[in-house]
Amino acid sequence: MEPIQTALKKWMRESKNFQEHYQSMREAILKDPDIQQILQEHSNLSRHDVERHLMKLYEYQSQSKRCEGCPSLDNCQNLVSGYSPNLHVQGKEIRLTYEMCPRKRQSQQQEEKRSFINSLYMPKDIVEAKFKDLDPDDRYEAIRQAMNYTENAETEKGNKGLYFHGPFGVGKTHLLGAIANKLANKRIASYLIYMPELVREMKSSLGDNTLKEKVEKFKTVPVLMLDDIGAESMSSWFRDEILGSILQYRMMEGLPVFFTSNYNLEELEKHLMTNNRGDVEQLKAGRIIERIKQVSNPVEVIGQNRRS
């Protein structure tokens, strides 16, 4: 057993080290400019009051405020990642609260914005497209109509989308992304879908019983965007039961649909006439075109091929 005198000397030595550390910490806390300002603004606080709340002052002083000293949100140095401490004085009490830091708030706003843009098989650069990044050149009229739609999306003019048609590589799909991002700023949800993959997605959904659920989602989303219609090999079943059903519902409910295609409407009708078995079904193809006209206005997109 350790002798009492040895234990006593050890305790006194550790106690002395503790006292030195405590005094050093106390001085650092009270020299902090933010804490000095708070104490000056609340001169009613006595030395005893300050000593009583020294640990709260230390917690405040030792953390980053306004993201100072934090390299990024992922490397936040605070006790609660993404939250900054605040001191409040009420009478003789010093209270410590936490509020979201600027980086956390910006991250949440971006995450919330992303939640308004759903996509199916769309590249990241399309989902993140902005109008400011689009070079007008020959596409001025298409960009003007796209921006005009976003400005009037919450009015009756927003009931009809746009049918962008033109050659390869002129930026039709980027227009969809820019519209979706602008609408997200207004908290209007959109769904961007690459048509050839949608056909495959619907076929695979027959096996896992999710077809009805997915079709319902495409019917009811505030703004639906179908990219590259006409590039897919479409069966009569998909054209009439899936695409026709979606367009019919949105036409009846006054919900807009945006399209991109290498075909104008006359050319698309010819494409839709012939199913994947080679049968010609002009009447059914014409019915789809009429629905497209009811939910969108045709806009030609011209310009140089940016994929070259």
Major sheet summary line: 6 strands, parallel
Strand line-up across the major sheet: 3-5-6-7-4-8
- Total number of strands: 8
Helix content: 40-55%
Unreliable sequence segments: none
Helix/strand-derived category reads alpha/beta
Rounded mean pLDDT score: 85
Shape: elongated
Cα gyration radius (Å): 32 Å
Give the helix tally.
13
What does the model show?
- With 308 residues, the chain is an alpha/beta fold.
- Helix content is 52%, strand content 15%.
- The chain is built from 13 helices and eight strands.
- It has helices at 4-31, 33-41, 47-52, 54-61, 102-115, 124-127, 140-151, 172-185, 195-208, 211-220, 236-253, 265-273, 282-295; strands at 83-90, 93-100, 117-120, 161-165, 190-194, 223-227, 257-261, 296-300.
- A six-stranded parallel sheet has the order 3-5-6-7-4-8, sandwiched between helices. A two-stranded antiparallel ribbon has the order 1-2.
- A hairpin with a 2-residue loop joins β1 and β2.
- α7 runs parallel beside α8 (172-185) and α11 runs parallel beside α13 (282-295).
- The longest helix has 28 residues, at 4-31.
- The radius of gyration is 32 Å and the shape is elongated.
- The protein starts with a helix and ends in an 8-residue tail after the last strand.
- The model has no long low-confidence stretch (mean pLDDT 85).
